[in-house]
Design goal:
- This protein has 227 residues and is α/β, with parallel strands linked by helices.
- 38% of the residues lie in helices and 14% in strands.
- The strands form 3 sheets. The protein has a 5-stranded parallel sheet, with helices on one face.
- The two termini are 24 Å apart.
Length: 227
Amino acid sequence: DKMDVVCRCQGGNNAGHTVIVGDKKYDFHLLPSGVIWEGCDSLIGNGVVIHLPGFFDELEKNIAKGLSGWESRLKISDKAHLVFDLHQDLDGLQETVREGLKGTTKIGTTRKGIGPTYASKMIRNGVRVADLLDDFESFTDKFCNLADIQMAAFPDLKVDKAAELERYKVFAERIRPLVVESVSYLHQKIKKNKKVLVEGANAGMIDIDFGTYPYVTSSNCSIGGVC
């Protein structure tokens, strides 16, 4: 309650925080915990990967528990990458394949699509929030290219591209008021001597670089992930 901004820096909706305020109990997976405090902005940063159906479901569940005033306080980075249902399906397919391989075992993924989304980001065929809001025809091309590449690599993967595009056309307008250019947004806050708290997900032993690899998460959840 002493912070001006709470900024989530990495991960996705595979981790969770439970926050209890008085008699109200909130469950957060993507939402920064500062979203419950009046006068405190909450930013989902560029290092986070966002599954929009899960995001809106989480938001609605917490609104039902008493969350209010979030419309003016919740921000999402335009540079954050999108988790699609196809990423979640890939997560499950890859985990199933690992189970039958010699000398290995399952990672224990939550099958939320976090790892495959970071993989898409790193091989540069991922899709960002900015792509969704900028030009829908361009977004359509990027999504279809991603889906076609993944279906070619994983024959068991099936994606109804038309249905997904219809869903994301609606999501685009729902999320548009929340999206900011997060670098300049944070620079302005810091320039005004605002207090910024960085919120991570998971812990050091499952950091992608410093944890018990390969039984780790897919992002840097130690201090290195802040940058």
